[in-house]
Write a structure and sequence with these properties.
single chain; two-stranded antiparallel ribbon; 10 strands; 22% helix; globular
Length: 158
């Protein structure tokens, strides 16, 4: 369990790292965030009203890798009365609430490392497939490494 920053004496959040069932099929905004000396992408799940009787609402925070949610890594909490003033174009202003990260640096590195190895293997497989194929025109292959932030606004949980 991880304690709330806004109501530490009253609220504890579960450190479950799974994607919440109600977030499957949900489309949300991607945010840039700095965690453990790395720039990463995060997304918020659906709003939770579990503690609204204590004037707190919260959202799960998910680590996004290659436009895919990989793990729940924390909680974004905000006072209920601040939510209306916090929404701008369906985007939550993260500076108006509190971000609680419950994933450890070691676990973070395992997730990032396993994804990095997978990407290297995928790139090698594509290269090998190309070298073995005589029917592929090099002009038909496109690698996109750094997608412009304007092109990458929303993530879809599946």
């Amino acid at each position: 369990m991880v304690k709330s920053i806004l109501k530490s004496d009253l609220i504890n959040y579960s450190e479950n790292k799974e994607i919440d069932m109600e977030d499957i099929g949900y489309s949300t905004v991607i945010y840039e965030y700095h965690l453990y000396n790395r720039n990463i992408e995060i997304a918020l799940g659906k709003i939770k009203h579990t503690y609204s009787n204590k004037n707190i609402i919260y959202y799960p925070i998910y680590l996004i890798i290659d436009d895919t949610p990989k793990s729940k890594i924390g909680i974004f909490e905000i006072k209920s009365e601040n939510l209306i003033h916090n929404l701008e174009d369906d985007e939550v202003d993260l500076e108006q609430g509190e971000i609680i990260i419950f994933i450890s640096n070691d676990m973070f590195n395992k997730i990032i490392g396993s994804q990095h190895s997978k990407n290297e293997n995928d790139s090698e497989k594509i290269k090998n497939d190309y070298e073995q194929s005589s029917d592929v025109n090099i002009d038909d292959i496109l690698f996109v490494e750094n997608v412009n932030e304007q092109q990458k606004k929303m993530i879809y949980f599946y």
